[in-house]
Amino acid sequence: MRSYTSLTNDYGILSLNNSAANITQGTRLINDAIRVIVNKFYFNESSFTTTTVAGQQFYNLPPQCRKIINVTGTIGTVVWVTKDCPDRNYWDVLNTIPFTQDFPMFHFIWNQNTQVGIWPTPASNGNTITVNYQKRNIDLSQADYTTGTVTATNASSTLTFAGSTLVGNMANRWIQISAPQGDNQWYQILSVNVGASTAVLYGNYTGTTVSGASFTIGEMPVLPEDYQDLPLYRALEVYFTSIVPNVNQAKLYQGLYERGYEQLNADYGSKVTSVVLTSEDAPLINPNLFQNNVYQA
Fold it and tell me: Is 2 a member of any domain?
């Protein structure tokens, strides 16, 4: 895993410039690269739910919503997937005549991605609306935290700290309990109880029970572990292209970035993991089995 501290330290070393100004510039370049990479893939997806209010058409989205993936409405046990309304004109045509019903058909993104409209306007209270969306990426900015010690119990998700000052935004960072006491694996933190100096992991700690062990809490990019060097390579490519021009170094890091990105795309460009079917494998479908008016986009 490559934390904010690890990436910025390596940027200073590999750029041959450890000045504070260059590290600040490198941090911006690394964060810019992370945003470009993450926005193409699905590593930062999340869901938001709210409930319908009779007669209310628009609902506020969470502030971290960057892009809506889809919207569903749950009526009883049935989940209805809405269509994306393509533009304002289409939305206005839909709403020419007021119409209410519980089964949603279209959604419309409004007010710079801060609200979503549902058509028809919900007729009842309490039905669930689920918005699946891509989150805005948070810039890396937090240095590794190593103060104090930790106690971890095998097969438990709770960690107890001594001599540490935990803060709430440590949730979703990663912790490594150092070898030889710990198993040296990285675990993601689900939540932090600041007053009790405890934290809960997303999963259970699988190493041997330890007490008073050293640890590192790091802020990691939202990228698969094997590809967390890509933002560093991209930052160094920019550095040696425009800040301190060096053709050979720029080509080196450009190559590392492009090869890594190509492999990332091969591994994570699609959520489908089954064998890709060719046109020869696709089943033949008789179009006469369907009526023309069954579905219209």
Answer: yes
DSSP 170: G
User: Across all residues in the chain, what is the average pLDDT?
Assistant: 91
Q: Is 112 exposed, middle or buried (0-12, 13-18, 19+ CB in 10 A)?
A: exposed
Distance CA(66)–CA(114), nearest Å, equals 9
Q: Taking phi first (over 0 means left), then psi (-120 to 50 degrees means alpha), and beta for anything else, what does residue 202 get?
A: alpha
Instruction: Supply the pTM of this predicted model.
Output: 0.81
Per-residue pLDDT for 297 more than 90? no
* 287 inside domain: no
Q: What does the alpha-carbon distance between residue 205 and residue 184 come to, in Å, rounded to a whole number?
A: 11
- Residue 124 CA to residue 74 CA, distance in Å, equals 12
Domain that includes residue 108, residue range: 45-135
Question: Residue 272's pLDDT is what?
Answer: 65
Mean pLDDT of 59-64: 93
CA angle, 279 as apex, 276 and 283 as ends, to 5°? 95
